[in-house]
Structures are given as C-alpha cells and as structure tokens.
Design a protein that fits this description.
The complex is a heterodimer of chains A (275) and B (210).
Chain A: E1 5-16, E2 26-38, E3 43-48, H1 54-61, E4 69-74, E5 77-78, H2 84-89, E6 91-95, H3 106-110, H4 112-116, H5 121-134, H6 139-142, H7 152-164, E7 170-174, H8 182-199, E8 202-207, H9 210-216, E9 219-224, E10 227-232, H10 234-237, H11 243-250, H12 262-265, H13 271-274
Parallel strand pairs in A: 3-8, 3-9, 6-7, 7-8
Antiparallel strand pairs in A: 1-2, 1-4, 4-5, 9-10
Helix pairs in contact in A: 5-7
Chain B: H1 2-9, H2 11-43, H3 47-62, H4 65-72, H5 83-107, H6 111-119, H7 124-154, H8 167-176, H9 179-207
The chains are: A alpha/beta (275), B mainly alpha (210).
Chain lengths: 275, 210
C-alpha cells in the first residue's frame, strides 16, 4: 500500500544573517535530508527537543512551508503541485491553546471549514452537534459560547472538533495538549487515543513529552537537530541504543512506577531510565 | 450675568452654528474613514507602501492647522474660500490616527489565530475580511474616536476661511475681546467633543473581542 504522506530526502533551510549587515549570511538546515513514510491509520508521533525540527516537519505536510530540497508527497502528489487551499482543507490542524477564533462562537469555530466549503446549514449544524458530542462537550451548553468562556481543556477539545469538521483523512497536531495542566492533559490524551482509534485517521502528532508519545503513538520518530535518529514502535523505543533516546528515557525517571508497563520496568537494557 | 445673557439672546445662532460644525465634522470623518480604513487594509501586505502612506499622513499632521487651511486656499478645485476647502483640510488631519490604528489593529493579531486560519485553508482575502478585520475593529474604532475629537477642535479654525461653524463665535469673540462670545463657540464645541467621545467609547467597548 502506498503511504499517505511521504518525505523524500527533504531539506528545509533558512538563511541567516547573524551580523545584520550585508555579506556574511549563512544557510541553516532546520530539517535535513529526512525520508519518512506515514501510512493510512497510523498515529505517528514526532518526538524531539525544542528546535529539533518537528514542527517544521509538520508544516511541510500542509504546505505552510515548502522544502528547498526533496519533496513531500501527500496522497500521491507533491505538496508543491497541490493547490495549497485544497490541500489544507483536506488536512485537520490542531495547535497549542487551540488557536480558536476569539470573535467566533464554539459552533462557528467548528463549522469554519464546512462554511468555506459551502455546506448547507442543516448539514453543518448536525455536524457541529456530532463533533461536540465526540469531544465530550454538551452541544446545548457549549455551542454558543465564545472561546474566552471556556477552560483550557475545553478550548483544546473545540480545537480538535474544528480540525475534524470536514472529516479530513489526515490530522496534524502540534503539541496540542502542551499548555494544559497535567491532570487535564492525561484526560485529553486518554480520550484522544480513544477517538483516534475509532476514527482511523492518519495522524502526525508533535510532542516533546515521551510519556505522551508512548500513550498515543503507533510509531515514534525521534528527531535531533533536524535529522531522524530513531524510529520504532512505542514498545521497542526504550530499547534503542542512542544517546538522544537515553536522554528522553531519563525524563521518565519521575514517573510513578504504576504508570509504566511492567515489561519496560523490568528491562535490564535501559540504564538511562533507571539511573 | 451678561455673560449668559449672550447665550440666551443668540441661542438660535449658536444652535445653527453647532449644526454647521457637526455637519463639517461628520462629512470630513466619513470621507477620512472611507480613505484611511481601506488604505490601511491595502498596505498591510505591502510593507513598502506602508511606510510611505504612514509617512505622508504623519507629515500632514505636523502642519499647523491654520497654516494648512491657508495653504489650501490657492489650490484649484479643492481650494478657495468656504466649506469645501475646510473639509479637505479636516480630512487630511483626520487620516493619520485612523490609518495608523487600522494598520496596528490588522497586524497585532495573535499569530496562533492567523496560523490556524491559514492552515485551515482560508485564502488571504478570507483571512483579511473574516479574521483580521473583525478582530481589529475595536482598535480601528479607537483611531476613529481620536480623529473625531481632533476634528471637532480643528473645525473651529474652519471659520477662518469662511466655512462657518462654532469657530465663528470664537474668532468674533477674540476680535471683540469678549469672553461671552468666545464661550458661545467654545462651550458647545467642548460639549460636542465630550458627547462624541463617550458615544464612540461605548461602541468601542461593544466591539471589543477578548
């Protein structure tokens, strides 16, 4: 089967002019020579530190950015050949804090893409109700609220509902739960894992939190300085012998033991996680 | 109480002058808004034009108002003595605050919101009309409010080139060295400014999106 999204030797660089004057400008690769295939129904988590290029990789998929070298193929076509508007309408996008439109109600926010696609109002309002129920918000209570009348978690739920509105096959999520308190975050992760299993979307999820990656991913791809340094199932991930993997594994130290599956706690080959 | 006596005996003249004043200000403001808001929307995506437009508007604002009225008189078509020249001068004065606030309002929008709009497949035009403009409205209105207050004040000078309005009493009072006559122009002008400010502030608060 052909991959839904494919990175072919993709390099994205920016030109920097450190002195601010003419001359001495240099190019800097944010993403360098990345090749990656993402298949339908996968939840691929891009894991990495700040500045590792994971958000850039995400933006290359819906052509918020275009690569200088290589190609990003989405549904059999390079993003550079897609009409960017058509491409983006078929890809849901969720960002931290939701990025909701403050002047729109919850219902208007969710129905944005259907409105742009000229759905009739009966179909749109039915869809809004469906989605609010899907993300666990009572439609009668929430449809007419504005984003500033919602809690952080509720805003994030609306953000997810909005991204799913036109039923896009692909969902991009850029640290969507990053700004939430730990309790709400865990709750959202649990619910989202459930939703994503039910909907069967192809999901690319960016995070710097290994625990979150392990909860949601069918595959984890670890980035370091714009390159892929590890790629594996969440179960195998901690067994990979790479310094950056060990650095991330070390962040699990503070995890209460009962949150880690026993198989991993008993792994003798992960000194980084136990040290 | 001869001072108030003048108000009573000339109340219909004062009322008439207030109406003329209000007309001058309203027409000038409508024209200034019709120029500055679209201009602001136009220059948002064109940085080169932006500095030119804001630069010209800033320079216009630095010309002393009496001098500006004087400069305009000899210019054909827009110049001469009377209402038309006064309106041109008032429009030129009113442009900057509206233009600047339109620009600031349209560009100071949360980048996450703009990124979401772009990522959801909105075109540049849709983003401008459905996202930037509604979110900038209260800031644009603040600019209109500032301009209105300035215009109500500057419009008193329009009487110097024969456009009438409350300035008529002020100039006459200065010439006659008569406080009562000056106040007959100054007090209604101040009241107009206070009322306009209050009404626009109210509107601005209603349009504000948090």
């Amino acid at each position: 089967m052909k991959p839904t999204i494919q990175f072919r030797d993709v390099t994205y660089s920016v030109t920097r002019n450190p002195s601010g004057t003419s001359g001495a400008s240099s190019t800097f690769d944010i993403v360098s020579a990345v090749s990656l295939e993402i298949h339908a129904g996968e939840t691929l988590v891009l894991l990495g530190r700040s500045g590792s290029g994971k958000t850039t990789l995400l933006k290359l998929v819906n052509r918020l950015l275009t690569p200088q070298k290589g190609a990003v193929i989405v549904q059999d076509r390079a993003t550079s050949e897609w009409d960017p508007i058509a491409l983006r309408r078929g890809i849901g996008y969720v960002i931290q804090e939701g990025g909701l439109f403050p002047h729109f109600t919850v219902a208007q926010n969710i129905s944005l893409v259907p409105t742009l696609e000229n759905w009739d109002s009966t179909r749109t309002s039915k869809r809004v109700r469906e989605l609010l129920e899907l993300v666990g918000l009572e439609p009668a209570q929430f449809a007419d609220r504005r984003p500033n009348q919602l809690s952080g978690g509720q805003r994030q739920r609306v953000g997810v509902a909005r991204a799913l509105a036109a039923d896009p096959p692909i969902l991009l999520m850029d640290e969507p739960f990053g700004a939430l308190d730990p309790v709400t975050r865990a709750e959202m992760q649990r619910e989202f894992a459930d939703i994503s299993r039910r909907l069967g979307k192809t999901i690319v999820f960016v995070t710097h939190d290994l625990r979150e990656a392990r909860r949601l991913a069918t595959r984890i791809v670890l980035l370091e300085s714009g390159r892929i340094v590890a790629s594996s199932t969440p179960e195998e991930f901690l067994r990979i012998d790479h310094p950056e993997v060990r650095a991330f594994a070390a962040t699990l130290d503070s995890t209460p033991a009962d949150q880690l599956p026993h198989s991993q706690l008993q792994q003798p080959t992960e000194p980084g996680a136990r040290a | 109480m001869s001072r108030w006596q003048f108000f009573v005996t000339h109340r219909s003249d004062i009322f008439q002058a207030t109406l003329t004043h209000l007309t001058l200000v309203s027409i000038s403001m409508l024209i200034a808004i019709a120029i500055a808001v679209p201009l602001g929307m136009f220059v948002v995506q064109r940085p080169a034009l932006r500095s030119i437009a804001l630069g010209i508007a800033s320079v216009l604002q630095t010309i002393p108002s009496l001098a500006l009225f004087g400069f305009l008189i000899p210019i054909p078509f827009i110049g001469g003595i009377g209402t038309r020249t006064a309106i041109v001068a008032l429009v030129l004065y009113a442009l900057l605050p509206i233009l600047r606030n339109t620009y600031v309002g349209l560009t100071s929008i949360d980048s996450a919101v703009l990124q979401a709009a772009e990522a959801m497949g909105m075109t540049d035009n849709q983003i401008l009309w459905r996202v930037r403009l509604p979110l900038a409205l209260s800031i644009i209105l603040a600019g209109i409010r500032t301009s209105t207050i300035i215009t109500i004040g500057v419009a008193t000078i329009a009487a110097a080139i024969g456009a009438g309005g409350l300035g008529t009493f002020i100039f006459r009072g200065v010439a006659m060295v008569n406080d009562a006559v000056i106040l007959a122009g100054a007090i209604p002008a101040a009241l107009l400014a206070i009322v306009a400010d209050g009404l626009l502030a109210l509107l601005e608060r209603r349009l504000k999106v948090t």
